Amino acid sequence: xxxxxxxxxxxxxxxxxxxxxxxxxxxxxxxxxxxxxxxxxxxxxxxxxxxxxxxxxxxxxxxxxxxxxxxxxxxxxxxxxxxxxxxxxxxxxxxxxxxxxxxxxxxxxxxxxxxxxxxxxxxxxxxxxxxxxxxxxxxxxxxxxxxxxxxxxxxxxxxxxxxxxxxxxxxxxxxxxxxxxxxxxxxxxxxxxxxxxxxxxxxxxxxxxx
Length: 210
Prior knowledge:
By secondary structure, this protein is an all-alpha fold. The chain has one domain. It is built from 5 helices and 2 strands, in the order ααββααα. It has a two-stranded antiparallel ribbon with strand order 1-2. A hairpin with a 2-residue loop joins strand 1 and strand 2 (69-70). Mean pLDDT is 77; it is low at 199-203 and 205-210.
């Protein structure tokens, strides 16, 4: 046996490490988490397919024909755009959260509980913004600028407005998400510094009002 083999043999035989008592439970939790992520992805995909199928059936069923051409009522496009916005919200939120966990864990490595709370709070803000945007942009009657108050059918002006609704929410979420990426390291640094302060320099009641 060579000197290197002898050292490896001693290192392996003299090791007194013991397996973690909760190793099996952590493996099971990891497997369950992976299964939940796959089920969530399948549900989101199925919901998207269902929305597209519903809108398609509604358009083909409820749209009258004038001289062989489709004349879509204005409200079908309005409902379809709203469903598209809801589908984007349900798909984009988990997508951002999935890839943002590792970034948040790295930023808040000194405060893991704070990182988890931060992700939950940003999720709440995300869905509040989406809900408010959808409600603000909803219309329940043809608009004068759409030039279809008499005909009641979709015009180029209404189509432009609905496309701008979708582009607007994507722009807002993109800007807020970019701002969040820039500010998160700053917040993580501040929390880390606060945690490292001596006990006599910390605020004993950080939630009190001045």
